[in-house]
Amino acid sequence: MQAARAHSLMRMAGGVQVVQSLLQARILALNASYFLKAGGHLVISIKANCMDSTVPADAVFESEVKKMVQEQLKPSEQVTLEPFERDHPCVVGGYRMPKKQKVVA
Description:
This protein is an alpha+beta fold. It has helices spanning 6-13, 25-35, 48-51, 57-70, and strands spanning 16-22, 36-45, 73-79, 90-95. It is 35% helix and 29% strand. This is Fibrillarin.
């Protein structure tokens, strides 16, 4: 589903558990806000060379993860796809995750 058609698709979807995106954290955040249920999960593949080939790949990754945090997404793990894909990590995380309750002993 695309964020551009989100309003017409929201009624049909009713909320999903996982949202996946390629490249941009901004698009992932839009799709998460439109479709993802609270406590849902997200996956983004960041292909650094397609986004900005003039800066080091690590700088692109760091920038996209910062954008995710600014958009209230909670990245939890980053996995590199090397040796199959160079400069192309996958980031997984959550959206509107419930707060953990403190355990009283």
